[in-house]
Amino acid sequence: MESLQMVNPHVLLDTLVRITIAFLLGGVIGLERQIRQRTAGLRTNTLVAVGSAVFVDMANRLGGHDGAVHVVAYVVSGIGFLGAGAIMKEGANITGLNTAATLWGSAAVGACAGAALMDEAAVAASFVLASNTLLRPVVNRINRQPVKEALSEATYTVYVICNRARQADVREKLVALLEAASYPVRDVDQHPFGQSDAEIEAKLYATAVNPGELDRVITLVEAEAGVSQAFWNASAEE
User: Fold this and answer.
1) Would you tell me which of 84, 154, 160, 237 could form a disulfide with 200, CB atoms 3.0–4.6 Å apart?
2) CA-based radius of gyration for the chain
3) How far is CA 41 from the centre of its chain?
4) Any idea where the MgtC/SapB/SrpB/YhiD N-terminal domain is (predicted)?
């Protein structure tokens, strides 16, 4: 009977209002995600918002504002684990970052509602929704623009195929030429290539390069004795 004695209609009504606000705002965020057929849609974002609101409201009732603050910190870290599950890496491509960030935003909205910060919850939901809608055409327009090599930031790797007996000298010359061109080498690896050759792989620090300058370095390296081939490529920085 102790549980019945602890029932306070006014407190219960207040909790109902907080969770309802979290439900509605999380549902609005999730609806946009569901329409776009994202992994975390209507139900997921709504549950994240409602769950965050319940935890914060419960902590506020049991431990006051200090308790609620502590629970908010745990909610943030807990949603981080949930968001990590939505992120997938396939080769050089990473997907799910926006989904994870949206879940984080839904948790923030729910936490605000659970703390009775209704205006703040509405403002937060508006900005999360705006980020997923208003910024979309901006991102699409930027992505359709051709990327200028000189302005892009990537990881560049220089490859040199040379006679195995000459690989030490070629490696030293390659590093010297790259540093002279103001492209410091982050790491150098070498391994056998065929019966008598070796491949030298020099990774540069992530930067923007002038393709012409790097081509000139390649030309100088290819002129070295024992070098049969030299080339470079770029990959997006993770």
Assistant:
1) 160
2) 28
3) 19
4) 20-139
Confidence of residue 210 (pLDDT cuts 50, 70, 90): confident
Question: Can you name the CATH fold of 154-236?
Answer: Alpha-Beta Plaits (3.30.70)
The closest of 58, 62, 52 to 22, measured between CA atoms, is: 52
Place of tokens 């936490």: 111
pLDDT, tens only, 52-95: 999 999 998 888 888 788 888 888 888 877 777 777 755 445 67
pLDDT at 119: 94
Q: Please report the pLDDT score of residue 23 as a whole number.
A: 96
User: At a CB cut-off of 8 Å and minimum separation 6, what does 54 contact?
Assistant: 19, 114
**pLDDT (mean) for 103-114:** 93
Helix, strand or coil, per DSSP, at residue 37: coil
Q: Report which secondary-structure segment, H or E, holds 148.
A: none
Q: Which residue do the tokens 């990959």 mark?
A: 235
SS3 content of the chain, % helix, strand, coil (to 5): 65, 20, 20
* pLDDT score at 92: 46
Domain boundaries, the chain: 2-144, 154-236
Rounded to whole angstroms, the Cα distance separating 203 from 159 reads 9
Copy the structure tokens of residue 189. Answer: 């690896």
Q: For residue 72, how many C-alpha atoms fall within 13 Å in the half-sphere facing its CB? A: 17
Q: With 0-12 CB in 10 A as exposed, 13-18 as middle and 19+ as buried, what is 202?
A: buried
Note the pTM of the prediction, 2 decimals: 0.60
Burial class from Cβ neighbours inside 10 Å (0-12, 13-18, 19+) for residue 78 reads middle
